Amino acid sequence: MSLTGKTVSSIIYTGSTKLVERGLGMISMLILARILTPEDFGLVAICSLAVFLFNSLSNVGAKQYIVRSEKVDDDVINTAWTLNIFIKGTIWLIFFIFTPYIADVMGKAEIETPLRVLSIILIVGCFGNPGVWIMARNLNYKPLFKIDVFSKILSFIVVLLIAYFERTYWAMIVGLVLQYLLPSIISHFICSHKPKFKLTNVRHQMKFSQWVVANGIIGYARGEGDSILVAKYFNLEMIGVYSLFKSLASMPLTQLIAPATDPILATFSSALRDDDFHPYQLNTVLFILLSLVVPLTILMTYFDQDIVLLLLGEKWIAHAYILPILALIMIPGVIFKVLSEYVLAEGGYKPIVYYQVCMTVITLGILYMVIGSDLESFSKYRVLISFVSLFIFCTYFQMKYKLFRPSDLILFSLPVLASVISILGINNIDFTTLHWFARLVMGCSIFAVIYSFFLLLFVYLNRQRYECTLFLSYLGNIVKLVRR
Fold it and tell me: What is the pTM for the complete model shown?
């Protein structure tokens, strides 16, 4: 199979995986949001922030190292696996010992026990079979699809049972632990690789890992720094509201689109190694992703209250105004991910780290100054900073690599134009007499039809561009795959 074919197949598998996971996650959210309180969500949010901060400290980038290495053998794989275990095990032990101090710093003594239980995810994930990294390197995502889907279904069942019988936030804590534990266990039944403890040429991997760790920490601080400030200075109810709506707003990006783009690093790395990279490849990926993200953002902005009613219930509707604000973060988020993956494939960890350090300091500094404002104003500042940061990074990217042309702006504007036409179309329809659920279903359906028609029309009219030809070709392949 060609590289393009493998990439499309991998994106379909990873996208399908997250589609199943998100479907089950939405059902869990429907149930948990109606059983638990904003305070419960706030408590779990604080625990998650602390644990995943330390998870960033322990992420040595073993998978990325294997994916981008020119030559890989058992010694390289086992060394990456061993280093991963050693670092994560050390970080977990430190976290476990200092848990009471972490709870004291956050000013929430009640999170100590949940913190220790949730910290298990720092150690269980690293004992999985490293053979999954080879599968990712080879763009063989079918076995990974099986691992992730089976793990999600099993953890989903356990979460529902705990939520139904116990009605406690522990359902979410246990669910998070299982999401890391189960794939680690199942991977040993899927992969034939026999891991062994090795430290061959570990210095080379550690040199690579130091930049991955730095990038992970700064990236986490940049992505979750706002949540940390909210967790520190707002009460549990507001913490729960902000964390849940931020998760809801970024759900399409973090749970579907971003994981579906996992093969991008491997694709870019392979193309660059073979001296077979062309700018149209980057443009095509960006165009496809923007064609998904832009309409989703518009829909979440227009039907914010209906979406909140559907997913969370009436007790959350008073805070629905936060959703359309935070939904806008998806657009700079997906563009930055694609461009940064190209920079990483070029071996440019240093510029990514330097950029993230600068923008994190600026972002947290501005947000700290406005932390005394209400949650709505705080959210607006967060979104504005995201777009300004993206503009700065895009400027650097173009100056460094010179891959974009002015005409590319026309290509990337097609999803925006189709979305605007679609939202104007449904805005002229009177939905006021309909039940909120019927309004949501009919509105989204009509929007999807109008958007699909105009997007395909615009792509067809611009078919002289190779990116548009590829888009139509990929769409045809997906239709054929679905028919099978």
Answer: 0.71
